[in-house]
Amino acid sequence: MRENSPAERLYNGIIKENPTFVLVLGMCPTLAVTTAAINGIGMGLTTTAVLMMSNLFISLLRNIIPDKVRMPAYIVIVASFVTVVELLLEGFIPSLYDSLGIYIPLIVVNCIILGRAESFASKNTPVASIFDGIGMGLGFTLSITILAAFRELIGAGTVFGVQIMPGAYEPATIFILAPGAFFVLAFLAALRARIQDKKPKEEQHPVHCMEGGCATCGNKSCSGKFYDNTEKK
């Protein structure tokens, strides 16, 4: 994939640099609001909307905002979009607004949003920045929704309010409390790392490639890149 293409930015946010399981950012809402799957997807989509719009505006203004005041400027931009989203939630989805509570205004200081503003949007084009925001937002949404679904299933026997476990199931209420959030997060992060470790690694060149170059290599599938697979002393 071409660097900074829409597909590459989406893949980067959802898989390669997932903000929850890889970068471990935004832990406050991740651990606090994921007691139910509906809260997870609500917080994720809310953050995605703010992240997408703030990335776009910061990229558009990147050559105008003075370097000395860039962080205060970023916070003003993010806070403006958070206020808009908060008012929309309060007006149209009051139940979700009540569930998320104080964590909606705290999106302003979410490390994911400020981190992407500083590291990507302020240095790249508006198109790349908006897709970076969408990718990171979807990665965050997917992660915390899965986390919330696990917690709700084990802690209450339901997912999105629908009864999944049989009536005889005794819910482990610790999973909808704060310690349960840490347990499930650690398990899912370890599972992701385990799956990542099992992926086949790129084939390395034989030792004689390193000595004689590609001309002496009989490997037809050789990528042409050199890898030192000799044991380092």
UniProtKB/TrEMBL annotation:
<keyword id="KW-0472">Membrane</keyword>
<feature type="transmembrane region" description="Helical">
    <location>
        <begin position="171"/>
        <end position="191"/>
    </location>
</feature>
<feature type="transmembrane region" description="Helical">
    <location>
        <begin position="44"/>
        <end position="61"/>
    </location>
</feature>
<comment type="subunit">
    <text>The complex is composed of six subunits: RnfA, RnfB, RnfC, RnfD, RnfE and RnfG.</text>
</comment>
<keyword id="KW-1278">Translocase</keyword>
<dbReference type="InterPro" id="IPR003667">
    <property type="entry name" value="NqrDE/RnfAE"/>
</dbReference>
<feature type="transmembrane region" description="Helical">
    <location>
        <begin position="129"/>
        <end position="151"/>
    </location>
</feature>
<comment type="function">
    <text>Part of a membrane-bound complex that couples electron transfer with translocation of ions across the membrane.</text>
</comment>
<dbReference type="Pfam" id="PF02508">
    <property type="entry name" value="Rnf-Nqr"/>
</dbReference>
<dbReference type="InterPro" id="IPR010968">
    <property type="entry name" value="RnfE"/>
</dbReference>
<keyword id="KW-0249">Electron transport</keyword>
<keyword id="KW-1133">Transmembrane helix</keyword>
<keyword id="KW-1003">Cell membrane</keyword>
<comment type="similarity">
    <text>Belongs to the NqrDE/RnfAE family.</text>
</comment>
<feature type="transmembrane region" description="Helical">
    <location>
        <begin position="21"/>
        <end position="38"/>
    </location>
</feature>
<protein>
    <recommendedName>
        <fullName>Ion-translocating oxidoreductase complex subunit E</fullName>
        <ecNumber>7.-.-.-</ecNumber>
    </recommendedName>
</protein>
<keyword id="KW-0812">Transmembrane</keyword>
<feature type="transmembrane region" description="Helical">
    <location>
        <begin position="73"/>
        <end position="94"/>
    </location>
</feature>
<keyword id="KW-0813">Transport</keyword>
<feature type="transmembrane region" description="Helical">
    <location>
        <begin position="100"/>
        <end position="117"/>
    </location>
</feature>
